[in-house]
From TrEMBL:
Domain Aspartate/ornithine carbamoyltransferase Asp/Orn-binding: 150-295
Pathway involvement of the protein, from the record: Amino-acid biosynthesis; L-arginine biosynthesis; L-arginine from L-ornithine and carbamoyl phosphate: step 1/3
Positions contributing to L-ornithine binding: N162, D217, S221, M222
Keywords from the named record: Cytoplasm, Transferase
Binding site for carbamoyl phosphate: R104, H131, P132, L133, Q134, C257, L258, R285
Species this protein is from: Thermus brockianus
Reaction(s) catalysed by this chain's protein: carbamoyl phosphate + L-ornithine = L-citrulline + phosphate + H(+)
SUPFAM superfamilies given in the database record: Aspartate/ornithine carbamoyltransferase (SSF53671)
Pfam families: OTCace, OTCace_N
Protein name in the entry: Ornithine carbamoyltransferase
Length: 298
């Protein structure tokens, strides 16, 4: 009962609602069974990373190991994507060596070019436009907590960034309702908001009120460090703390993709408090990564 999916996972375009549901169902089974297998025996995944990572790198490496395969980590200092060597040439080399590429890049166009030029699957391990592996772990976490997605109200408070983009892409496929609150100037793409039928506001309290989920991410993403001072000013009032969390639905939970910048978008109390499911969410990166690798690399 192998699932058929597009060759690559760059974002969720081309992914059906059924494909997403099947991936999450597979991840649930792999988690329940603490699965170890040999399906990817002898297969190698290249991790081509322009930026640092804890969760994405570790879960992809461990997932490959649990499925009988192996991962090779290639950092930007060694490979020099677009500097030492053009993306096309990297793709046309790696496809001769390995069975898949997971790439963490600054520009989404880089993962698109890798996917276009390599005949092997390319997985987006975070770009400026999308973080699909994160959204899959988020969906699994919501399913575990609430039993399903239909009608859940998810409030995103903070930057209109890559993590939000993937959540917005996934939302209409599974029936999640997203409310987005960003400061002026940090709104996500309007077409994406419309496709997701998302509610938009500049008021974090309005977004949080009665929601089942409050989700945030750093105000300054990797690569935006030069804007940090300005962002600290612009995002004032958008911190997810005990006060904002108290507005949620009584069963409401807090999610954060991590890493957290404490004292900025959130507090230690929020991440380590009773409503937090942040570390289940992080664990689910492993199970969903396994589901993706098993499906795309088998
Ligand atoms: N959430 C996430 O992608 O974490 P890393 O940047 O540590 O991989
Ligand atoms: N928006 C953050 C997510 C990190 C997992 C970034 O791009 O740095």
């Amino acid at each position: 009962d192998a699932l058929t999916l597009p060759k690559d996972l760059l974002d969720f375009y081309g992914y059906s609602a059924q494909a997403i549901r099947d991936l999450i169902a597979l991840a649930e089974r792999l988690k329940r069974e603490r699965y170890r297998g040999e399906e990817l025996k002898g297969k190698v995944l290249a991790l081509l990373f322009e930026k640092p990572s804890l969760r994405t790198r570790t879960t992809l490496e461990v997932a490959m190991l649990h499925l009988g395969g192996h991962a090779v980590y290639l950092d930007q200092k060694q490979v020099g994507i677009g500097e030492r060597e053009p993306v096309r040439d990297i793709a046309k080399n790696l496809e001769r060596f390995v069975e898949g590429i997971a790439a963490r890049v600054y520009r989404h166009a880089t993962v698109e070019a890798l996917a276009r030029h390599a005949r092997i699957p390319v997985i987006n391990a975070l770009s400026d436009r999308a973080h699909p592996l994160q959204a899959l772990a988020d969906l699994l976490t919501l399913k575990e907590v609430f039993g399903g997605w239909e009608g859940l109200e998810v409030a995103w408070v903070g930057d209109g960034n890559n993590v939000l983009y993937s959540l917005l892409e996934a939302a209409p496929l599974v029936g999640l309702r997203v409310r987005v609150a960003t400061p002026k100037g940090y709104e996500p793409d309007r077409a994406l908001l419309e496709r997701a039928h998302a509610y938009f506001t500049h008021d974090p309290k309005e977004a949080a009120f009665g929601a089942h989920v409050l989700y945030t991410d750093v105000w300054t993403s990797m690569g935006q460090e030069a804007e940090r001072e300005k962002r600290l000013r612009d995002f004032r009032g958008f911190q997810v703390n005990g006060e904002l969390l108290s507005l949620l639905h009584p069963e409401g939970i807090f999610l954060h993709c991590l890493p957290a910048h404490y004292g900025e978008e959130t507090t230690e109390e929020a991440v380590h408090g009773a409503r937090s499911r942040v570390f289940d969410q992080a664990e689910n990166r492993l199970h969903t990564a396994k589901a993706v690798l098993l499906t795309l690399l088998s």
